[in-house]
From TrEMBL, chain A:
Species this chain originates from: Nocardioides potassii
SUPFAM superfamilies registered for this protein in UniProt: FAD/NAD(P)-binding domain, Succinate dehydrogenase/fumarate reductase flavoprotein C-terminal domain, Succinate dehydrogenase/fumarate reductase flavoprotein, catalytic domain
Coiled-coil residue windows: 507-534
Residue ranges constituting the FAD-dependent oxidoreductase 2 FAD-binding domain according to the UniProt record: 28-439
Lineage of source species: Bacteria, Bacillati, Actinomycetota, Actinomycetes, Propionibacteriales
NCBIfam families per record: PRK07803.1 (NF005866)
Domain Fumarate reductase/succinate dehydrogenase flavoprotein-like C-terminal: 495-608
Protein name: Fumarate reductase/succinate dehydrogenase flavoprotein subunit
Keyword tags: Coiled coil, Flavoprotein, Oxidoreductase
UniProtKB/TrEMBL annotation, chain B:
Name by which UniProt lists this protein: Succinate dehydrogenase/fumarate reductase iron-sulfur subunit
InterPro entries: 2Fe-2S_ferredoxin-like_sf (IPR036010), 2Fe-2S_ferredoxin-type (IPR001041), 2Fe2S_fd_BS (IPR006058), 4Fe4S_Fe-S-bd (IPR017896), Beta-grasp_dom_sf (IPR012675), Helical_ferredxn (IPR009051), SDH/FRD_Iron-Sulfur (IPR050573), Succ_DH/fum_Rdtase_Fe-S (IPR004489)
A matching Pfam family: Fer2_3
Highest taxon of source: Bacteria
Names of required cofactors: [2Fe-2S] cluster; [4Fe-4S] cluster; [3Fe-4S] cluster
Pathway(s) where this gene product acts: Carbohydrate metabolism; tricarboxylic acid cycle
Annotated ranges, domain 2Fe-2S ferredoxin-type: 5-92
Gene3D superfamilies per UniProt: 3.10.20.30, Alpha-helical ferredoxin
Organism this protein belongs to: Nocardioides potassii
UniProtKB/TrEMBL annotation, chain C:
Highest taxon listed in the record's lineage: Bacteria
Alphabetically ordered keywords of this record: Membrane, Transmembrane, Transmembrane helix
Organism: Nocardioides potassii
The protein, known as: Succinate dehydrogenase
Residues annotated as transmembrane: 26-45, 82-100, 147-164, 184-203, 244-267
Length: 622, 258, 273
């Protein structure tokens, strides 16, 4: 076969060059997304014997996991032998303000260490302790130094390792291919089951159908709906929206994590992440008056384990046994809110942030060694030498705790054959995620999803069929933006959505603003129906954005609706009009489903699954 | 502090194209990618650009700016005079797809041809032990963000299309070196590096190192040490003699050739 | 400009006719390298074939050290095993430093760029239609660099010995001032030779092959602490290998020129004591 009839990225045969037809493939398991979760799931499915394909919007190895800096949380006990899964479980639940699905938090804490060591088997080179074991570093909300890391580029190490593993064992990858529809067909009990995916090659704009009884969504988050975000263009909530449209439910969508430290200047990089490791390694937060203000913001919930004097906080870095943690290392929601308050009170820096200072506290060599990419990032992008001067930082939209509701053990959603892992799944992190728990989440549940999807397919007597209508419908829907004329440019709608979400559904929320946001989202949805794109289908970013925008709008609506309903403040959801955490809301999840018209979402309350008594004991007296 | 920037951007595809002139408003602190994005949002909605993180971490937005291979997101406008016209073209070593986007599948093909890491069993307690100084060399190479600018600038393939078959390129020599220096790996890939990967085609003119946005010393720390390792195996009469009379080179202990 | 089917104008690549779009003065560095290297080659060749004016007691030109042929009196500190050699004595030993430098990783980069234009500068298309790198004879011989390095260490030792000899009392005809010639001596020549030998050693020890041999070849630094230490030192020197390559090239030429000027009586040694 000549090279030209194969897709240059994947080596797949490109039958779509044939007249009229749509390219078709068959696999047992299709993984959508090639970040840490997707790759880990694909590896697991492949190793379980399933023929597996990965479909991803970008090139392989470019997914958002690459941006993760700090580390992978896993109670390996390499630094602190007293660390174990129980402590990690407790930290995770407390960090999530007890709204996590207990079973997910438990599995996560139990399995993370082995998942990390697996990466090492596959070639990852973590930083080492003096004994030659994997080094572990401190992070906010974790009782012990627990994050396996490689300088401040742990995500890169993780994705490269998984990518190389996937290539080594020969998994097919459909790069620069966007999934726009989940294909379904009626199952044995009448309910629709997954039959495959429909999408387009970004490169050519041609359509592709992959028939597959199991689809694992690993599409990441929704951050691109906000103006100031640490997320890349890919984070448009594709998985969330695909799942909704397929009939699955989303949970905890009101909880969006604003990372306390994002860059604020220059404008072009506003929102770009500044790793929490800066604080873990000794950096402190100061306002324009030079005051270490975090001492004024220690909540009751964490008083017992947080230092209340500068002396004790500073002593902690050297002697962790006899001192309590500095308040700079409180969970992210606390720190982000504190920074927000300081800026609002007029004690911010010239560019509207506050100061993160490590220069005056650690020597230049230490900083360059421990935080090489931060040093590089500030030097190259802001002309700031972080070994000499403080950084200006402010909160940035970083992570969505909410996502597709799944079974904790199998990651199966409410739709047969549809699995979800990583940021696009929900429940694991409750109302707030601890730093470092994301990378371990990807690995633990990625593997579980891959294995359960492979098992499901192996047990199938008959495969669900993909109907011709559904494929044609997918094509029509995707081409709609080319049909309209005289409508808005997708970039304009995206910018207005980002502005609205940032201003009205941001870090501090009120009922009136949320209602306003919902009105605006409705307007934008209307305008989006008629938006027009110029040019043709070949690598056309305007068209790609137009398709992604539908997902962004649906997800934004879910967030705003859930945020309006939850009348309390908890974790990543802060209501100015309901500033207290409410015990009643502490037992309820909010669940989002597609409405009957298929254009919006509806909301339902659902009781939080109850933790068994043997796990409850870890929280007594705390 | 904004000003009007004059840009020339290559527009076209496989069948041909040309440098098109644009004027776009830019402001302080911006990078070339910002200017292109503004162009995209206001004048040329279908301008194809490949990008992701916009922070120099993913290595997607590789292109050539005023003839030099660079990341669009890490090239600050303040590096140029406001009156200067900035020329942006796709990478010129790979087939173009459209506008600034090229088909970099060459690199993914080469990645598939490289036998991956193969470690021995773990220690008795289920963990592995490696000293920090033993992993540091590999860690430098693993900083690679796979932007493929080194592959783009390397004249072996840039100027000689016919060498693409036989030459893996600097990015993969980095990988060979990383694996060869891995303290626990069990494979010997020196023959492969010299044979299948075409290490001998490299004439160490160091352009890969010059363009690396991560500042990896590709030539000095990976390629030359790899060449020396090949010399150990193939061109060192002392080693050859040692093998003949039964004194084996300890370096290769515990490693099998692949 | 005509389109060819190789290089940056190959089919499938973005159609841009210019061989480079670089606007900076990329040609300056290869040009400077070309001029300076060529000047050195002309000078060194003429001096090597000259076969005279290489010794001005107590100074021996580094081009002729060790002087193993039919050398002038006082110049041969290691005997004259090649006394039968009809040509200049420099030609017997120059092959070693020449080979060392010709196969040096730094010089290779420089002359491939400046002389062979392969490539002239980064992202500037080279003029050759085909390219086989260092895979075939003769360039595959670049792999013997480490053997020249062993020789270079010996040459370095000899040159160091020459420096010691340069402290010897001077013969009467070079005596300065009150004509005192006894006791140890130091002149500008001694100083130049010291500087030269220091630079030669820096160049020799910062060599990439040296870096590999002392420790780079190991996979477990942690099991060889001494070699690791050595490797770190050599690595630090290696960072400036190119600088030492240039400086030592100049210093060799300067010492030789100084000896030449002394031997021909053009100048007098500046004597310190």
């Amino acid at each position: 076969m000549s090279e030209s009839s194969r897709h240059p990225m994947t080596g797949n045969e490109m039958s779509y060059y044939a007249e009229g037809g749509i390219e078709r493939h068959q696999y047992d398991v299709v993984v959508v997304g090639a970040g840490g979760a997707g790759l880990r799931a694909a590896i697991a499915a492949h190793e379980a014997g399933a023929s597996t394909a990965i479909v991803c919007k970008s090139l392989l190895g470019k997914a958002h996991t690459v941006m993760a800096e700090g580390g992978i949380a896993a109670a390996m006990g390499n630094r602190w032998p007293e660390d174990n899964w129980e402590v990690h479980f407790r930290d995770t639940m407390r960090g999530g303000k007890m709204l996590n699905h207990w079973r997910m938090a438990q599995l996560h804490a139990q399995e993370a260490p082995e998942r990390v060591m697996e990466l090492e088997d596959w070639g990852a080179l973590f930083d080492r302790t003096e004994d030659g074991l994997i080094s572990q570093r401190d992070f906010g909300g974790h009782k012990y130094a627990r994050l396996a890391h490689v300088g401040d580029r742990t995500g890169l190490e993780m994705i490269r390792t998984l990518q190389q593993r996937a290539v080594q064992i020969g998994i097919d990858v459909f790069m620069e291919c966007t999934v726009t529809e989940l294909l379904q067909s009626p199952g044995a009990d009448g309910a629709d089951v997954i039959a495959g995916v429909f999408g387009y090659w970004r490169e050519t704009g041609r359509f592709v159908t992959i028939e597959s009884p199991a689809v694992i969504l690993a599409t990441g988050g929704i951050g691109k709906s906000f103006k100031v975000t640490s997320n890349s263009w890919e984070y448009t909530g594709d998985g969330h929206a695909l799942a909704l449209r397929a009939g699955a439910s989303l949970i905890n969508m009101e909880f969006v994590q604003f990372h306390p430290t994002g860059m604020v200047w220059p404008p072009s990089v506003k929102g770009l992440l500044v790793t929490e490791s800066v604080r873990g390694d000794g950096g402190v937060l100061k306002n324009s008056e030079g005051e270490r203000f975090m001492f004024d913001y220690i909540p009751e919930f964490f008083k017992a384990e947080t230092a209340d004097t500068v002396e004790e906080a500073d002593a902690w870095y050297e002697d962790k046994k006899n001192n309590r943690r500095p308040p700079e290392l409180l969970p992210r929601d606390e720190v982000a809110r504190a920074i927000n308050s300081e800026i609002k009170a007029g004690r911010g820096s010239p560019h509207g942030g506050i100061y993160l200072d490590i220069a005056s506290r650690r020597d230049a060599d230490f900083i360059r060694k421990r935080l090489p990419s931060m040093y590089h990032q500030f030097k190259e992008l802001a002309d700031v030498d972080i070994t000499q001067e403080p950084m200006e930082i402010g909160p940035t939209c970083h992570y969505v705790m909410g996502g597709i509701e799944v079974d904790p053990d199998t990651e199966l959603s409410s739709v047969t054959g549809l699995y979800a892992v990583g940021e696009c799944s929900g429940g694991m992190h409750g109302s707030n995620r601890l730093g470092g728990n994301s990378l371990s989440d990807l690995l633990v549940f990625g593997r579980r999803a891959g294995e359960s999807a492979a098992a499901y397919v192996a047990g199938l007597a008959q495969r669900p069929a993909v109907s011709e209508e559904s494929v044609r419908a997918g094509g029509w829907s995707a081409l709609a933006p080319f049909q309209a004329e005289g409508g808005d440019n997708p970039y304009t709608i995206q910018q207005e959505l980002q502005q609205a979400m940032n201003d009205l559904v941001g870090i501090i929320r009120t009922a009136s603003e949320l209602e306003d946001a919902l009105v605006r989202i409705e307007e934008l949805k209307e305008r989006a129906k008629g938006m027009t794109v110029e040019g043709h289908r070949q690598y056309n970013p305007g068209w790609h954005l137009a398709l992604d925008l539908r997902n962004m709008l649906l997800v934004s609506e879910s967030i705003a609706k859930a945020a309006l309903a939850r009348q309390e403040s908890r974790g990543g959801h802060t209501r100015d009009d309901f500033p207290k955490t409410s015990p009643e809301w502490g037992t309820r999840n909010l669940v989002v489903r597609l409405d009957e018209h298929g254009t919006g979402v509806t909301l339902q309350e659902q009781p939080l699954p109850e933790m068994p008594a043997e796990l409850k004991k870890y929280f007594e007296g705390a | 502090m904004g000003y009007d920037l004059k840009m020339r951007v290559w527009r076209g595809d496989e069948s041909g194209g040309e440098l098109a002139d644009y004027t776009v408003e830019v402001s302080e602190g911006e990078v070339v990618l910002d200017a292109l994005h503004r162009l995209q949002a206001t004048q040329t909605g279908d301008l194809a650009i490949r990008w992701n993180c916009k922070a120099g971490k993913c290595g997607s937005c590789s292109a050539e700016i005023n003839g030099r291979p660079r990341l669009l997101c890490m090239t600050r406008l303040s590096d140029f005079e406001p009156t200067e016209t900035i020329t942006v073209t796709p990478m010129r070593t790979f087939p173009v797809i459209r506008d600034l986007v090229t088909d970099v599948s060459f690199n993914y093909r080469k990645a598939r041809q490289l036998p991956g890491v193969q470690l021995g069993p773990r220690d008795a307690d289920g963990k592995r032990r490696m000293a920090q100084i033993d992993v540091e060399r590999g860690q430098e190479f693993r900083k690679c963000i796979e932007c493929f600018l080194c592959q783009d600038v390397c004249h072996v393939v840039r100027d000689h299309e016919d060498n693409k078959e036989a030459f893996a390129g600097p990015r993969f020599f980095l990988r060979y070196a990383e694996l060869d220096m891995h303290p626990l790996d069990t494979h010997d890939r020196r023959e492969l590096a010299q044979g299948a990967a075409g290490l001998g085609l490299c004439n160490i003119t160091k352009c890969c190192t010059e363009v690396c946005p991560e500042g990896i010393h590709i030539t000095d720390n990976a390629i030359i040490p790899m060449k020396e390792r090949v010399v150990d195996k193939k061109y060192d009469p002392l080693v050859w003699l040692g093998n003949k009379i039964g004194i084996r080179n300890k370096d290769a202990n515990g490693r099998t050739e692949v | 400009m005509a389109t060819t089917d190789h290089g940056v104008t190959s089919p499938g690549r973005a159609r841009i006719d210019a061989r480079t779009l670089r606007e900076d003065r990329w040609w300056l560095q290869p040009l400077a390298t070309f001029v300076v290297f060529s000047a050195f080659v002309v000078y060194a060749t003429s001096r090597a074939f000259m076969g005279r004016d290489y010794y001005a007691s107590p100074y021996l030109s580094p081009f002729y050290s060790p002087c193993l042929g039919d050398c002038v009196e006082g110049a041969s500190d290691f005997g004259q095993p090649f006394g039968w050699w009809p040509l200049s004595a420099a030609l017997i030993i120059l092959i070693f430093p020449l080979g060392f430098r010709m196969t040096c990783y730094y010089y290779r980069k420089s002359y491939y760029r400046a002389f062979w234009l392969s490539p002239p500068a980064c992202a500037v298309a080279e003029p050759h239609a085909s390219y086989s790198g260092e895979t075939r004879f003769p360039l595959i011989l670049q792999n013997v660099h480490r053997w020249f390095w062993y020789a270079a260490v010996l040459v370095g030792l000899v040159l160091t010995y020459d420096v010691l000899l340069a402290f010897r009392p001077m013969p009467a005809e070079y005596a300065v001032g009150d004509g005192e010639t006894s006791g140890i001596h130091m002149g500008l020549g001694t100083l130049l030779m010291i500087a030269n030998v220091v630079l030669i050693w820096l160049y020799t020890l910062s060599c990439h092959s040296c870096r590999h041999i002392v420790g780079g070849r190991l996979r477990h630094f942690s099991k060889h602490p001494v070699r690791y230490r050595l490797w770190t030192w050599v690595s630090r020197l290696n960072g400036s290998h190119g600088r030492w390559a240039w400086y030592s090239l100049f210093s060799v030429a300067i010492v030789d020129l100084y000896v030449f000027l002394l031997a021909t009586g053009t100048i007098q040694d500046v004597r310190f004591f």
